[in-house]
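for the writeup, i need someone to sanity check this before i put it in the appendix. the sequnce is what the collaborator sent (i think, or maybe the updated version? ugh). structure was predicted straight from it, no edits. if anything looks off just tell me and ill rerun, i have time this weekend
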Amino acid sequence: MARDGIPVIDMRKVEGLGAELVKACVEWGCFRMVNHGVPVELMAEMKAVAASLLDLPEEIKQRAVYTEQGKGYIKRNQGSPFFESLSIDDVTLSDEFCDNLDASPHQREVIYKYIKAIRDLAGLLGRKLMEGSGLAGDLFDGWCCQIRMNKYHYCPESVGLAGVGMHSDPTFLTILQDDENVNGLQVVDKYSGEFAPFDPVPGSLAVNVGDIAKAWSNGRFCSVQHRVRCFEPKTRYSIVLFVLGPNGTKVEAPSELVDSEHPRLYVPIDIKEYRHVRTTKRLHKGDALDLFRTTTT
């Protein structure tokens, strides 16, 4: 049976926070954060802004279409008939996104405040993961991050079906503001192979570990497979920060995480190349990492 108790971590904890975060990344590849520092009022405002932008006419949302898969505006399609999303593909370029959608001054203010708060939280996570791994430094300093706003158009016909099919994330970390009123997120327990519910907790934020974190940790972290299911015919929103990777350099395991018991598992990985391989070869469940393994075992 799937284990009970996906970790819930108090981010105000002083002693041992880094070790607790690393343990969650290793054993589950996901955890939920409380006392994370992002005001609940700002979270509510951001959800309202996301809903209003996703309710814009199709011709306006089309201004955010991007040629690269997984970026820009993603409309409902035959493969994902209940899902659409908008993204700010580089949070440092949020002005361009707002301009394209004719965002109001209020919408812009909320987006800017949310990006700063969630990016600051990501920075704290990066520093604590370094600390918990016995390293020093600011792991995510200068890394590219993406904000994605998702809408699930659930209806009676969608109950029991997938909003998003099973996958891992091609990222280092994914910080999720899920819908406090509509559940559906499920993760795979790496020990049993069964699905465990990752239900929302009001005011909290969820974290998924992605493929790039598994490579960086030299295979220690679990790149968790997950999916979103429809359990009731209610519209579901979520807002996600993807911590993608460094700009201009490849990701590889620090030398401190490589030794005789833990030989280097992966070659240095270019983030854009990795995403391209995942997409073109349709390897969306973490198996694309096998193509980046070292020849030594």
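The mean pLDDT is 92. The chain has one domain: 8-292.
thx in advance!!
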